[in-house]
Amino acid sequence: MAALTLFVFSFLASTTIAIEDFQNTQFTDKEERQFYFHGYFHEIFTGPNNTTTTAVSPNPDFPNFGEISIFDVPLWGYLNGTNLIARCQGAGIQSDQNTLGWHLSFNIVFELPALKGSTLMVMGRAPQLTSTREFAIVGGTGVFSLATGQMYGRRLSSPDENELWIEFKILGYYTPMKKPDW
């Protein structure tokens, strides 16, 4: 019992010191800022330039249910595939037994020079057979620390069934943070 009491006291003391250190250091400027991006997600399913691959094939008893796909898809500034804004890197899980509904979890890794390496973390559901979709921005790094917001998508007509173009509008907030001095 004495050992447990000593452990709890040590944990609380170290936690208190860490909280006090954090409160005494100004890590944020406490000013929330808005951001907005408009772009085009271009997914290619087959061929030498494919951007998506199936990591786990579906169960034959439930077609498509349980499929897991991994993707690294460019987010372009223009529909013609020019002006690379970012790369969407993550995974999709076909998690709906009744319809083609995907759970997506991915990072938007920015390529623009002023944002290079900054990320937005995105999660949401993408019903495959609908034209619109909505995702939550659940975090961010770099320029986009403490990001929250929404990502709206609209499926566009694609040249063939092996490609998918989606127009995106990304709106959100972030709070700039100072990096710790190690």
UniProtKB/TrEMBL annotation:
Any one Pfam family match given in the protein's UniProt record, by short name: Dirigent
GO CC terms, sorted: apoplast
Signal peptide range: 1-18
Record has tRNA processing as a keyword: no
Localisation per UniProt entry: Secreted, Extracellular space, Apoplast
Gene3D superfamilies given in the database record: Allene oxide cyclase-like (2.40.480.10)
Assigned keywords, A-Z: Apoplast, Secreted, Signal
Primary subcellular site in the record, as a coarse category: secreted
InterPro entries listed in its UniProt record: Allene_oxi_cyc_Dirigent, Dirigent
BP terms from Gene Ontology: phenylpropanoid biosynthetic process
Keyword Ribonucleoprotein: no
Task performed by this protein: Dirigent proteins impart stereoselectivity on the phenoxy radical-coupling reaction, yielding optically active lignans from two molecules of coniferyl alcohol in the biosynthesis of lignans, flavonolignans, and alkaloids and thus plays a central role in plant secondary metabolism.
Assembly information from the UniProt record: Homodimer.
Family of this protein: Belongs to the plant dirigent protein family.
Name the UniProt record assigns to this protein: Dirigent protein
Organism lineage: Eukaryota, Viridiplantae, Streptophyta, Embryophyta, Tracheophyta
